[in-house]
Design goal:
This protein is α+β, with helices and mostly antiparallel strands. The chain has two domains: 79 residues, Arc Repressor Mutant, subunit A (Orthogonal Bundle), CATH 1.10.10; 194 residues, no CATH class. The protein has eleven helices and twelve strands. A four-stranded mixed β-sheet has the order 9-10-11-12. The mean pLDDT is 93.
């Protein structure tokens, strides 16, 4: 084997360059196909597996896999593979997860695209869960032929109060709640961003709005005796006060409010619903919508991209199941 060079395969996790036939690193020239099929989806959703990027951006999956591989390697580095995904024991079996790198964000900024990265990302697993859930809402709207109203649409709407538009944290909802008979002023901000769905009912536009989603990775208690501590029960209390005081109207201009609550397994979901039943004296609430979604670190198969969050049914406490497309 003297004189024979064995070409080593690049690691799927590294950023070593891809080499052309002359042994030089391949340099990517950004195209409109890249912008539409890769950069835009990752601008909307910080972390996405390659199959989600493919469904959102279209085109050939094989081409996309190869293109992302090139864009994530030196000297290009327009996207990156978050290192946190390697913490999953099944990482080598799952689709790679990507995000826009600083160089990619600069490309979009130079092209005049609006985006917000002011909210600090939580844990990787939680942020990924939120991104996949929100992407599912968008895909569901596309599948069902309804309009998905984005946060950018809401910020430009004439219905949004000017005080909220000018706020440094417009997605934070101020609300007064009663704790042990005493009023407390707090703020609550859901995961993701506020969004809406526009449907047709009897030839007229019908709207449903959400403050975002409450994605639960089972890292906080469902109930807590100390109100200052974050818990699912505290969120129930805050949103019930928002609904009762119609703060969703005064803060966002929303005619209604629904709160999607997504957790990782059926047992935890049932516990949440029992707490809501207790808080409401057995009456339940029409605004809280419940579903499950696999956790990133679970042994369940990685969720495949679908519009199920919008087109599927949600459970409620004290009310019939809810569907964003079909419920009146």
């Amino acid at each position: 084997m003297n004189g024979v060079q064995v070409k080593r395969r690049n690691s799927r996790w590294g950023d070593a360059p891809l080499l052309d036939n002359s042994g030089k690193p391949k340099v990517a020239v950004i195209t409109e196909r890249d912008i539409e099929g890769i950069f835009k989806p990752l601008l909307r959703y910080r972390y996405l597996p390659v199959d989600f990027i493919h469904v959102l951006g279209g085109g050939s999956l094989g081409y996309l896999v190869d293109r992302l591989n090139l864009l994530s390697r030196r000297p290009n580095l327009y996207v990156r593979r978050p290192v946190q995904q390697r913490a999953n024991a099944f990482a080598n079996r799952y689709r790679l997860i990507y995000e826009l790198a600083d160089k990619g964000l600069r490309v979009m900024e130079e092209r005049g695209f609006e985006f917000q990265r002011s909210r600090a990302a939580g844990s990787f697993a939680h942020e990924l869960m939120v991104c996949q859930i929100m992407a599912s809402f968008e895909l569901g709207a596309r599948d069902a032929g309804v309009r998905f109203i984005t946060w950018q649409d809401i910020l430009k709407s004439e219905s949004l109060p000017e005080s909220t538009r000018q706020s440094p944290r417009p997605f934070h909802i101020p609300v007064r709640v009663m704790v042990d008979g005493q009023p407390r002023d707090i703020h609550i901000a859901a995961d993701g961003h506020p969004f809406g769905v526009q449907r047709q009912r009897d030839g007229k536009n019908s709207y449903l709005f959400c403050p975002g989603v409450e994605a639960d990775c089972a890292t906080e208690p469902i109930d807590a005796s100390n109100f200052d501590r974050s818990s699912i029960a505290k969120k129930f209390t805050a949103y019930l006060a928002i609904r009762e005081g119609e703060v969703h109207r005064s803060h966002f201009g929303f005619p209604n409010l629904f709160v999607p609550i997504i957790t990782t397994n059926e047992a935890r979901l049932a516990s949440m619903m029992k707490v809501l039943e207790r808080i409401t004296g057995g009456q339940g609430s029409r605004i809280f919508l419940f579903r499950t979604f696999p956790a990133f670190a679970s042994c369940d198969r990685s969720p495949t991209p679908s519009g199920e969050m919008l087109t599927g049914d949600w459970q409620r406490v004290g009310y019939p199941p809810f569907n964003f497309v079909t419920t009146s």
